[in-house]
Amino acid sequence: MRIYFDHNATTPVHPDVAEVMVRVLREHYGNASSVHRLGQEAKAVLDEARTSVATLIGAEPSELVFTSGGTEADNLAIRGVAEALEPTGRRHLIATAIEHEAVLVTLKALARRGWRTTLLPVGLTGIVEPGALEDALTDDTAVVSVMHANNELGTVQPVAELARLAHARGALFHTDAVQSIGKLRVDARELGVDLLALSAHKFNGPKGAGALWIRRGTRLTPILTGGKHERTRRAGTENVPAIAGLGAAARLAMAKGAAEGERVAVLRDRLEEGILARVPGTVVNGAREPRVPNTTNISFERVEAESLLIALDLEGIAVSTGAACSSGTLEPSHVLRAMGLPTHRAQNSIRFSLGAGNTEEEVDYLLEKLPKAVDKLRSLTARRA
Ligand SMILES: Cc1ncc(COP(=O)(O)O)c(C=O)c1O
Fold first, then answer.
1. Which has the least CB within 10 A, 41, 69, 299, 376?
2. Ligand 1 pocket: which of 178, 239, 351 to mutate (most atoms <8 Å of CB)?
3. Does 320 contact ligand 1 (Cβ within 6 A)?
4. CA-wise closest residue to 162 among 151, 152, 148
5. Rounded Cα–Cα distance for residues 58 and 321 (Å)
6. Looking at residues 44-52, what average pLDDT do you find?
7. Distance of CA 163 to the CA centre of its chain
8. What is the mean pLDDT of the chain?
9. Is 325 one of the catalytic residues?
10. Which atom of ligand 1 is nearest to 71's Cα?
11. What domains, with CATH codes, occur in the chain?
12. What is the pLDDT of residues 91-110, one digit of tens each?
């Protein structure tokens, strides 16, 4: 039995996506910049994918820049706009303390080059308060970056309201929508943002393909320089098969529509309620609404999350911890720490993230195995104490 509850880390490639990619890899091997027929075929593949991704997020195809994924899209948004705005004298960047490292470490890098940065706090809800952004904004603020959905908790941020506040002070607004695309309906214009990052491998597309949506008229300096690809906004020969896969994943997400989200939410709620009812000493981290439909993050009192992850893996169930293992020590998740949770609670947490293909039987299998695994780990700790 192999059960995958780690879709926020990555998702399996859908068979239709794989089929499109293999066909493009074999047949459309031209360079999309070449003038001959093979080149133009590859260009047509890019055009089709661009239209599909644009339709998914309510954008114009010409506003999209293909990237190597979410990390590059976040970097291009923040570094690209920061550099373009440098001559205006605006030297302040704002993000939340619960952003992905792709944003947080980019801000740190810019701080070393003299940019002032502010990280907005979040409380136990894992949702940023608009008032906190209002207080942090200055006439110096160049860009505000707030993720649409958090990868560890699934909580959805009030992006439209935050973008309005940023614009009122003349700042641009970027949203990392890597964890909401394919889970929620996302319309870039309705959100009112200027830049939006997405990544194919989070919605059944391939790894190594993503896009940045740049609202028409937004000035941005490229971070990869070279040829005139992507309307001179991102140099480098396009990864045509991976981009074709991104386009196919976007079409599938549109075809599934809201129904798939509703199906997954029922499973997630069954899993969450089941754990809370069967395992004493458990609590859901962060607000339960608004959340993406597939994610729950649960703390297990007196259980080291890493041990529980391994116990579940031995039963064939893949989940993830809120803690990251770096240089042999367990670093508590920066997201749970930012919410003000004590270290032990941050080290007791497991993220379950569901997706296409998961079934009620799989949830029930987890609900059968998990309480036993927790009991066993707790009895071992009690004996050691
Ligand atoms: C919220 C968020 N942003 C950015 C990324 C990075 O995307 P990629 O893996 O495509 O570089 C991830 C991936 O985990 C993510 O969850």
1. 376
2. 178
3. no
4. 148
5. 34
6. 98
7. 18
8. 96
9. yes
10. 11
11. 3-9+257-384 (3.90.1150.10), 15-253 (3.40.640.10)
12. 999 999 999 999 999 999 99
